[in-house]
Write a structure and sequence with these properties.
The chain is mainly beta. A hairpin with an 8-residue loop joins β8 and β9. The protein is globular, with a radius of gyration of 16 Å.
């Protein structure tokens, strides 16, 4: 099973601009990790997002779409996401020199509830000392990533990173990820 697959598109700049046009000006002043759920509905209404999802035949498989903001010099804890296997991640701003890393571990994770999540979303968190690095990739373009394997995100820059996450239904079959 693959950990990630880059999915190039000629529409990336249009998507980035469309998403940035609906966001508040002070968004890039954030210094922590936040999920902007109040914009989810607006994102789903953007024609450029619909076009991209159709391009990769993801439209019928999208569970949720959200903006993920990671402040400067922030590393998200090693974790596994619950409820889905794949996320289609689209860089919106300041994603160069930011990375997703995957890890192997035999440790039992701690279940953590996502702060301020109305649906009670949880994830499985691991201690870094219990994990060994498998692979690391710079997310500088659209990627499908496997979120069921322990992973984390690093923003090594002095800028706030903005990534669009399209969570895909766990029943989706992606042959290129199963090789």
């Amino acid at each position: 099973m693959r950990l990630y697959q880059r999915l190039p598109t000629k529409h990336l700049q249009r998507i980035q601009q469309d998403v940035l046009n609906i966001l508040p000006d002070d968004l890039f002043a954030q210094t922590t990790i936040i999920r902007l759920t109040e914009y989810d509905k607006h994102l789903l209404e953007l024609p450029s997002i619909h076009q991209l999802l159709r391009e990769f035949e993801f439209s019928q498989y999208v569970l949720s779409i959200q903006l993920h903001v990671t402040g400067p010099q922030v590393t998200i804890p090693i974790h596994c996401d619950n409820g889905f296997i794949y996320s289609f991640n689209i860089p919106i701003a300041n994603c160069s020199n930011t990375y997703v890393s995957w890890y192997s571990t035999s440790a039992i994770p701690e279940t953590v509830r996502v702060r301020d999540d109305p649906a009670g979303l949880t994830y499985e968190r691991f201690k870094p000392t219990d994990c060994a690095l498998l692979e690391r990739v710079e997310i500088d373009g659209p990627y499908v990533i496997n979120t069921s394997i322990p992973h984390n995100v690093e923003n090594l820059t002095d800028n706030t990173r903005l990534m669009l996450l399209c969570r895909l239904h766990k029943d989706i079959k992606l042959a290129y990820m199963e090789q």
